[in-house]
Amino acid sequence: MRAEWADSLKDKRSVVKSVINKTRNKFNVSIAEIENQDLHKDITLGFACVTNEARHAQSIVSNVLAFIEANTDAVVVGVETEIL
Questions:
Q1: Quick one: DSSP state of residue 5?
Q2: Core-most of 8, 44, 56, 74, by most CB within 10 Å?
Q3: How many domains does the chain divide into?
Q4: Domain with 46 in it
Q5: In this predicted model, what pLDDT tens digit does every residue of 49-79 receive, in sequence order?
């Protein structure tokens, strides 16, 4: 994600914290900032869910991504998905 308006790490942290807490509470997934912690405009989040069906996992991934896009002013610039 990219937060062009973030002028400091403090601005970025407030967005990241909000997105992580809202997503964790709504979907019961593990989510964290995984890269670019020292860059104030770039946000890289990773999340994981556990289920016994690949179709259910894909549904969760899609719903989480849509939720994140709808609940932040930051722009999602790329998505990598891995379902095992």
A1: T
A2: 74
A3: 1
A4: 9-70
A5: 999 999 999 999 999 999 999 999 889 999 9
